[in-house]
User: Fold this.
Amino acid sequence: QVQLVESGGGLVQPGGSLRLSCAASGFNLDDYAIGWFREAPGKEREEVSCIRSDDSTTYYEDSMKGRFTISRDKVKNTVYLQMNSLKPEDTAVYYCAADSACWAAVAGLGEYVGQGTQVTVSS
Assistant:
């Protein structure tokens, strides 16, 4: 079965950290650009980060730069999003997506899209 599965979300206090995982089954994540985007109630979908397939170049939305880090684990066929210094405005459902292009993955238009994992930042 071909699918992407996110995990690692939860409730964290402001200033805390979480590491989200995006695990693939049925295909090799290395062949795809992997992007993260998020959706919060009452807000537009927001791009978060992406890692390219060819040279592993990474991209981040401005508000995430310096706080979030995207990386690949080829052995585990998983992409991670390390999130530090979390803020209440980071509260959202986070999705990962796989596509040939980062722009499609972070726009939620990826060939494969996971089911999402909830991140709540609150004291």
